[in-house]
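Input/output pair, single chain:
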Amino acid sequence: MLTAGLLAPPADIDSYQLDRLNPPSRRQLAEAGVDIEALTTLRMGDLAAVLTERPPDVLILALPGGGTIAARHALAARWSSDLRRPLLVTGYVGVVYEKLVEGALARAGSDIVLANSGHDAARFRRLYRDLGLDPDPVVEAGLPFLRGPEAPRAGRRFTVTFAGQPGVPAGEADRTYLVDRLIRHAWLHPERVVNIKLRSMPGERVTHAEPYPYPAILRRAPGPLPENIRITLGDMGEALRATDLLVTVSSTAALEAMNASVPTVLLTDFGVREQLGNAHFAGSGCLASFDEVDAGVAPLVDPDWAAEHGVDPLGPEQFVARVSALLAAEPPPLRPYYTMARSPAYLSRLLASYGLGPDGRPATAWNGSTVRLARRALRSTARTLYRTGTHVVAPALRKLASL
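Output:
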């Protein structure tokens, strides 16, 4: 929604939601600025038909990599030749710390691939050139929610905000360790407020599964809790106005804090690893341990690192200018990187998981191949439901039973 807002006023933005398991909650949608009453929910196979009723100039695909692939194939298969097709814009919404090649290739073939920094743009373009793809669609544009320093709220205690992530770290022991350290920090510094900032309410849709929510771990903590530790929710930009030190493992919130000139710590307690995402921040000057946080460390980001990694981003001018230039010309045919000639096994499974056949049209002929692909997709969904039931629902029910 913020990216669309760079191109048009809210009244000219139509919102669509893919009909998938566990969609965003009404609270999440409203917080993102979506007009819930005007929101259209659709299946991937109906994408072209629904958009034909009100053809957009630009379609921003706010989907994971597989969804962007499926959407491009669905549009290419069924978009009316009598209508000018919309420009397709894709990109990343945060720190690109894993699946660089997979994610970039999933977005290849879009008219614009947004990169959040000069560092990311250079990596995407190099990869595209190495594979014989046109690097020109890569456009550097800063994360749209970076707003720069704001006046902090006066008359409050020194506040430490821990920005939690649903999937990093993933294990129960590591997440319990973080809660224990936050409790310890609150006891060591009674003059401070310690906020555990959640990205979502328990049960709401998040990018990565969260089998061990921080509120549940905090409730299980032995002994009384210090009065200065709290659970918070809501807009990160608003939270940063009341924050004097941001602590996280690798959240995009770190970039927001750096952009707002708030001292920031990327924790090294679990190592500095690509899997965690904190390796992305090597050179920022903000890697530190919880022991150092307890001792009072409050690092500010290195200016050179910040300039290269999108903390002080370019404005939207380059993105807006590219859109204007493309709208003034005839859009070329859609050319996704993944085709049935190049990657038939991968693409068939992926399209089937979105209800599409190999040709990008809604799957209607239930032949043996389609049945096998559907079974694989359903099996993957069943595994996800099983893990959610065993790791999230069952512990919650046991907790309720013990009250």
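The longest strand covers residues 87-91. The chain has 15 helices and twelve strands.
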